[in-house]
Automatic annotation (TrEMBL):
Record's protein name: Exodeoxyribonuclease III
KW Metal-binding (keyword) present: yes
Top-level taxonomic group: Bacteria
EC number: 3.1.11.2
Cofactor list: Mg(2+); Mn(2+)
Any one GO biological process: DNA repair
Keywords: Hydrolase, Magnesium, Manganese, Metal-binding
Species this protein is from: Brasilonema sennae CENA114
Note on cofactor: Probably binds two magnesium or manganese ions per subunit.
A Gene Ontology molecular function term of the record: metal ion binding
Amino acid sequence: MKIATWNVNSIRTRLEQVIDWLGQSNVDVLCMQEIKVVDAQFPCAPFEELGYHLYFSGQKAYNGVAIASRQPLLDVSCGFAPTLLNIQADWDEQKRVITGKIDGITIVNLYVPNGSAVGSEKYEYKLGWLAVLQEYLRSLLLSQAAICVCGDFNIALEDKDIHHSAKSENHIMASEPERQALRDILLLGFADAFRKFTSEGGHYSWWDYRAASFRRNLGWRIDHHYLTPALYERAKSCTIDVAPRKLPQPSDHAPVIVEF
DNA sequence: ATGGCGCGTTGCACGCGA
């Protein structure tokens, strides 16, 4: 069983690359972020022709998450509210969460807010959103034993997840409050699948479009799979596939795949 | 220090991403 996460940066623009990659990688589940399309316009047909079922929560122009799965997902829900019944509704206005269950594994597909700049209004929104996410996962853990939380976290937890020329405490995605918010979430009982197999730095999942960052390998590892303990033990590999990032007109993110 | 590239938009410059 392979579960992949990929910020595709517009599913309509990236459709051919995503479909090609699905056909080659043969993953069972693909979690996508930044689909940037309303539900009525999601291009379902090419996925269905490959044998995938589609689940999505989209909005116009920004954000949006989707899951393509070979087997139908159970208990699909969008946003925090179905689990956090008392949450303020506006935390679900931006479409950043979709959850479903397959083979006893609850998959939570996330697009964590970017945060713009440390100290900005969007940064405060990101920290607030992460606090809501913590409560969401705490609540899920009450009823679900095997959880895979994956997606674009927009946080590099350690300095070795960041290329040498960008290490800055006040950099968005690396500031201490963001890292602490993510550590607090992991303390609920999640471990990084990638770090089960690879301890050294220099492995990245996102490279800025500008300044030839990919060619110079000036990247960040910000796309993650976080697993509950028994699932973590079952993980057989976790890899970043940089091949799609080399194509013309790529997403700025590469897919990350965990295998059980 | 700044901006760089790419996406979508009742588009033709701008907000946003990270």
